[in-house]
Amino acid sequence: MCIGISRDSRHKRNATGAKRAHYRKKRKFELGRQAANTKIGAKRIHTVRVRGGNTKFRALRLEAGNFAWGSEHTTRKCRVISVKYNSTNNELVRTNTLVKGAIVEIDATPFRQWFESHYALPIGRRGKKPHEGHEEGLNKPRSNHVTRKVNERKEGFKVEQAIDDQFVTGRVLARVSSRPGQSGRCDGYILEGKELDFYLKKIRSKGKH
Q1: Please, where are the H alpha helices in 124-176?
Q2: 202 phi/psi in degrees, rounded to 5
Q3: For the whole model, what pTM was predicted?
Q4: Residue of 104, 64, 106 lying closest to 86 (CA atoms)
Q5: Residue (of 176, 174, 164, 170) closest to 196 by Cα position
Q6: How far apart are CA 33 and CA 22, in angstroms?
Q7: pLDDT-derived band at 189, boundaries 50, 70, 90
């Protein structure tokens, strides 16, 4: 026996608890489909033909996405490393399932390279010497005009301490804002400020149990 996934509400009781009468069968426009359960891995996307002849992109596996650093107004393509927290279900964390709203750990290298090139300041170094090739952004030759621009950017600028601490590990926390099972993409933004504090507290409390 095959039971379809239905999104109708006719099978539910009404507000007063009365059972509703059955006056029709299931309809095509009430159908639901199985969850994508997108995992982290080499990119694999299926196309699904949906109502109106439109197409959805069902991501089965994704390994990277575009993530925005809001306060710095920049976006970089970053590798997704793991899922750290999900308010819906801990099972989605254990199985590294990518869904909208998931808190993930991403590779900080693209943002580090941009930051050190843009501000000519080290980030997340803590006494470490830059690796070969990584010091280009700090010491690359600049014209007088560009040097003045960079010095103006530096004045009074300070990166948030919690973000700097994350850059030391080479990974930053981000929130997925796209829908991998619908759009086939895993895009999002880096956590900052009170939102970052909130999720760090949640992740720490989860680790204690």
Answers
A1: 136-139, 144-154, 161-169
A2: -65, -45
A3: 0.86
A4: 104
A5: 174
A6: 23
A7: very high
